[in-house]
Amino acid sequence: MRVHTTQHCNTSKQCAKRMEEDQEQAIDGLHGAVGRLKHTGVEIHSELRLHDDLIGDIDREMGTLEAKLKHATRNVERLLKDSEDKGKLCCIIVLVVVLVVIIVLFFSF
């Protein structure tokens, strides 16, 4: 960033002074850019920590939900097995009643 490029230097001291001023302005510009980058880096770090905490919370909740789901699945499986056994028992009882009715009807005539 040269500010005084259109001006002509009268002496070597003036040229050196202008170069020094240009360099100081460039350094000031870099200093501001580095400060903004630092601020952005701090904000990104803060966001990453927040997201890490959120992911940790979600992970813990998922573990809890997984355990509850396994328990519920076992209960449903047991319920299905119990109802299947009850269905078989009902079928056997109905068949026995039908057999008794058939026997009674067969021997009645």
Can you describe what's shown?
By secondary structure, the protein is mainly α. The chain is built from one helix and no strands. It has one helix at residues 12-108. The protein is rod-shaped. The termini are far apart.
Overall shape: it is rod-shaped
The overall pLDDT average reads 86
Q: What kind of sheet is the major sheet? A: none
Tell me how many strands there are: 0
Notable characteristics:
rod-shaped; mainly alpha; disordered N terminus; 109 residues; 1 helix
Please describe the topology of this protein:
Layout: H1 12-108
Give the structure's gist in a few sentences.
This protein has 109 residues and is mostly helical. It is 89% helix and 0% strand.
